[in-house]
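Quarterly update from the structural biology core.
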Amino acid sequence: MRSRILFLISLLLPSLSLGAGDWCYDFISPNCGPSAWPAQHPQCGGSSQSPIDIITKKATPDPKLSDIIFKGYMDPDESFDWTLVNNGHSVKLVLNGSITISGGKLGSTYKADNLHFHWGTTSAPGGEHTINGVQYPMEMHLVHWNQNYRDMTEALKHPDGLAVLAVMFVESSEGDAKDLDLIQYLKHIKNEGDKYKIKPFTLENIIPSESSKSKEYYRYQGSLTTPTCNEAVIWTVYKEPIPLSKDQLNAFPKTLHYNESQHIISNFRPIQKLNGRTVYVFNSGSLLFRLNLLMCIIGIRAFLLFN
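Predicted structure, tokenized:
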């Protein structure tokens, strides 16, 4: 009888520690990991889920796509504090103030809500989207909601409710690595539930630079990659990764804890089926070439017309 009771308690421990109806990643328990999400959150079993594997040769060029326009990213309003949070699933930076994106065929202005990260372990990658089957060490999501709606909750009910920018990180030498300012604050949010107020800082190092190569991106319609997996996201996945040092990348799995004995590791959702969706690609270099070609044609026609 004693052994049977202990066995039943062992089965209940994951749910008792997480709380009824909660979810987790497999590093906590497969019983509440990604494969179990649809049981509690039906939208996670939908046909337009994220992340996906982007096959570059199958991506469709879309001439209507254009550069994303960033406002407030380089010069955030310093009268608002930002909040860094360890929510037990990831580290999230809540972005207050007037920070928006537009352009890029988004059809509206989207207000920044937060940015957060998905990583693996000190020896294995943990990005969510893959490109030609390649998984990057870490992936950042910049989450924005459509200002045509009242708030984030309302936006999640609509296919164009959210615009999320996905940026990959790759390991690089110390000399080539960018500085990710928020890493210095991770020590203040080691445990689940910890929060830490910080002053706004420029986000220049984590958004695409002015070079055409870094502005190339893929676009598709998808979902949140965590429950409740709402299919309300216009995804922009940047092609060019941002270089970080090994120490910077390892700071996430080494510093952040789910509980006293367990680090947060491998907090990524597995790849989901494309199910007939189209992945589009924007290449600002090719767009510039087409514009220059058009101007040449117009110039030649004008020359022939007046001579």
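The radius of gyration is 22 Å.
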